[in-house]
Amino acid sequence: MNATPEWIVRSVSRLRAPAPPSDNKSSPKASDVPRSTHERLQATLRRGNEALSPRALRRVLADLQEVVAPQVSEIEGGRRAQVVADWYAQAEPEERRDMWLLMCEQFAPDATRFKSARQRYEAAAGTAEEAQAEVSLRRALVSPRTRLLQRFAVFPQGMRFLVDLRAELLPQLKADKRLLALDAELEHLFSTWFDVAFLQLRRLSWDSPASLLEKLIKYEAVHDIKSWADLKNRLDSDRRCYGFFHPRLPDEPLIFVEVALLDKMSASITPLLDEAAAPVDITRATTAIFYSISNTQTGLRGVSFGDSLIKHVVETLAAEFPRLRTYATLSPIPGLRAWLGKHAGAMLERLDDKRRAELGRAVGTEPPQAAHLLAALDKPLELAPKSPLRQMLMECAAYYLARELPEGKPADPVARFHLGNGARVERLNWAADPSPKGLKQSYGLMVNYLYDPKRIDKHRSLLAQGKVPVSGDIDGLIRD
After folding, report:
1. Which domains can be identified in the chain, with CATH numbers?
2. Which positions are catalytic?
């Protein structure tokens, strides 16, 4: 018999009941275990920690069931969903959570139907009936919850409602695993609804509506926009800003990228954010620097837009500026300081005796220990160009970006994004971000990731093999 396909295995995990509580003495008392919605709907009184009474819970369930009633049209279902959304807007956080639990537990797939369909599919594997059995199995996996969420997407503000609902839901998942099914369903639907084929790439400029410009200020996640003058500088003649938009959220950029047009690869964020700097002559620009990429919708976590955005922006820029030859980023390294705080000792062990002694003299203690190194690096901007400490920090940063691959993926979140999109680690830049945030995250270091359209697939293939694509300069810093 053929092995069960991966998509079935993933789906089965959603249907499995949670493991029963342990019988050991540390198990919570029965009165402390949250009641399921099935139990609460059959009850008369609520417990002290339950938001909605059984009667109110039954009323909300009835309203949700009316949304997906078989005889109700899509339009009427959307209208009824809007009524529920209006109630939700006025509800307290714990009351909203009760509605999530109803959506999880009362609108799950029929486990009996699924089991039967799966058995038929496995029995039909390799026969002429396999295709029809797969169709039946897929239909058995479509939960009433899917149809319910689809009805919420029908009314004009329905998509906004669902995205905001998931943003509110995400922080609660760790504490209450019962909510995982609703989150998985939303993420799956969003991956379809927000596919790049349905998104629009739009340029944002100083002439864009003020309401849209205000959202750029609000959502900028890499380098805070401090004023309207700061924003105007980022939208000047030698800059470009592009965002992806969805037709159902026409005034909300889902993700946006800020680009500087230059004559060389940038080594510091300071001149790019300098409001007094004169604009570059864009007719001579040869390099496009992506210096900020911001996702704006927490509720769309897990839905990837970035790789498609960069590809579309590169194509758009190439058409407008044929002289452009280099496409690169100037990116933060947000995880560097925290990582080095845990791995300084291991990095010291990589040094030979000569360099360890040299570093010991620089920190004032031989042999140097992790605590000595970290204390000496605390004020990186004061380190001289030829300081052994400065060299050590650059080596640690190169190692972090190029060799740290927990579970086969780059440890740094920004590196994970760009390397996953086919870039390579090109160059480390000292004191590139001297802001308090830059010093706190990465000792002021920034990195250029290079996007070479001809080598993107090659770089992705290397990463899949557990090898981070790097330039010769980065490779030389690591000293394997």
Report:
1. 6-17+32-108+143-193 (1.20.140.90), 197-329 (3.40.630.180), 336-478 (3.40.630.150)
2. 331, 418
Confidence check: pLDDT of 415 > 90? yes
Name the phi and psi angles at 304, rounded to 5.
-90, 125
Matching residue, tokens 């609108």: 107
Total-model pTM? 0.84
Over 90: is that where the pLDDT of 434 sits? Answer: yes
CA 66 to CA 81: how far, in whole Å?
9
Residues whose CB falls within 8 Å of the CB of residue 310, separated by 6 or more in sequence, listed in order: 257, 290, 293, 421, 451
* 8 Å CB contact between 199 and 244: yes
Radius of gyration of the chain (CA): 27
DSSP secondary structure string for all residues of 189-230: HHHHHT-GGG-EEEE--TTS-HHHHHHHHHH--SS---SHHH
For residues 267 and 474, give the distance between their C-alpha atoms in angstroms, rounded to a whole number: 15
pLDDT at res. 365: 84
pLDDT of 23 over the 70 cut? no
